[in-house]
Each structure stands twice: as structure tokens, then as C-alpha cells.
Amino acid sequence: MRTSIVHDERLDLVHYPANGWTVIEVNGQVDVHTAPKIRAAVIMLLNGGHRHFVLDLCPAPFLDSMGLGMIVAITKRIRDHEGSLHLTCANDRVLKVFKICDLRKVYAFHDTVDQATRHAPRRGALAHWPRPHPT
């Protein structure tokens, strides 16, 4: 069941379950205007008991440094709750931001949500983050 978290002129966020994961689909730019809303949505879900997330950035056409900072911040929050985080993104422009900031190797990236949720999540998968993610 898909549930809308945020819906406004800049951002549409929906979440839904998939194989033990909570998928958060980000439709809109991830920037100074939308990053705080995404962060708040993840915190709300964490407070509601969700622990394992896939942040689906495939529909997001743009990510700026504020968006990248938000992803690092939510990663720390999820880690503190012994959760896990995968990112989906096939957009070279968005992936380039992670590469430039040398964060491409510390996240688990997948091309699709199906790939990201293929295996059930592990408790505490981020315990040693930000060590480079094994490729």
C-alpha cells in the first residue's frame, strides 16, 4: 500500500513496504527546499518503528549539496536505530554528486527498487558506516 507523506508543488513523497524495507519514493528535486521535508519524513517513519529504508532517487532529476547533507544526516539517524539504508538511482547527474563528494563508495546503490529490496534487510547493517560499501 502506497502512502503519501508529502505532496506539494516541489515534492511528492510516498512510502510503501517491500520485503521488509520501507521504500521512500522521491518525486522532485532534492535541494535546499525539499531536503528538510525528506529528513522530517524519515524521522517520522523512524519514530513509527520503521528501521530499514530504500531511498528511491530514480524519479529525482536533481540533487544538490543540501540534499546530500540530508542523506548523510538520515543515514546517521537510521544507523542509531540499528537500521539499514539502500539508495536507488540510475541518473548519472545525481550519482555524480556522490562521486564528487567521495560518497559513492560508502552507500549501497541500486538501479531499481526491485534490486534494492531483493534481500531482506539486516539489523545494524550501518553499524560500521561510513566504511566503504563492498562492491
From TrEMBL:
InterPro entries: Anti-sigma_ant, STAS_dom, STAS_dom_sf. CDD domains: STAS_anti-anti-sigma_factors. Residues 19-120 form the STAS domain. It holds the Pfam family STAS. PROSITE patterns: STAS (PS50801). Transmembrane segments: none annotated. It comes from the Bacteria. Belongs to the anti-sigma-factor antagonist family. NCBIfam families: ant_ant_sig. PANTHER family: ANTI-SIGMA FACTOR ANTAGONIST TM_1081-RELATED, ANTI-SIGMA FACTOR ANTAGONIST TM_1081-RELATED-RELATED. This is Anti-sigma factor antagonist.
